[in-house]
């Protein structure tokens, strides 16, 4: 029985700092949530997001020294979802666009036209530009993942403060290819979240 | 009558390339959507997102040459929402945390402790690090904005390809302070969106 109440899911989301240690999330349900989260859009549908789901005792121990002050979340969450951006995401373009052709969503000609159009930009993008693209797209998916988690009855806590230069290698990934974006702790909250304030929309918006 | 069906809002969201030109969104409703979108989380609640809502004929004309191949969205949308990240967002920390104290959500002592803890990091962050933070946080809000728009009955198209080095100045913003993140076209879709493929969750996820 999933929660389908958009208002409740979205506006009652609060960051959970402590989770119920006894709650496990099956790999099947985790993949289901990732499937749902990755319906998020990405630049030219390149889907640069990659996930390392840290759930084992050994994995949590490896992660613990790398997440600084957020050890409670690491120690109590069902899983810590490390979201990485793939700096060579364009290597999957053929697979993505080929699959669209196979499924009849795109003709071969359109595929060629699109890929001829955007591939040179991706293949030759300066590192800073690619870093921006993969972090923006991976953050879109992170937000949708946090909402999908609520639909499944879980709570989350997004974390930006961790040892960015160590986390890829610690989990066997090439740090040149995979840049860490956010870590999302997930589980059932065992924490009384407090309301937090927001700036008034009028003070951060101009109409032109 | 807002749509409150999470499944429909989230999984039937598709990028709209053409909008119904006759649909206008009032400034009041736009601010309501921005208020709802900014319930999204951000690093230490710094809320670095800023919005320029381009809706006038003059604004659209100014934006047109800067958005490259997405002119249909510019010409037909109710508005083009330019989302910027504020590289000096920490200048609002006192306002944000002061307001939390005023509202009884935080004691003065906790406020001081938190600000003493994170402010030096923000004030002294290298440009690349601050760029990452504001782009990640602003992308979280962008995703929530696209979903909130669906709740209000509108469609969106997020766009990353535009003249990033010109858009701030064109709208009177200091380009050193405000970095563009995404442009979100919003309106009522007048476009038959097609399904798009996604990579299999199993192929982009590892469990550790």
From TrEMBL, chains A, B:
Q: Which domain of life is it from?
A: Bacteria
Transmembrane segments in this chain: where?
Answer: none
Is Oxidoreductase given among the entry's keywords? Answer: yes
Q: Which residues form the Nitroreductase domain?
A: 12-188
Q: Which UniProt keywords apply?
A: Oxidoreductase
Family listed: Belongs to the nitroreductase family.
Q: Per its record, how is this protein called by name?
A: Nitroreductase family protein
Organism annotation: Clostridium algidicarnis
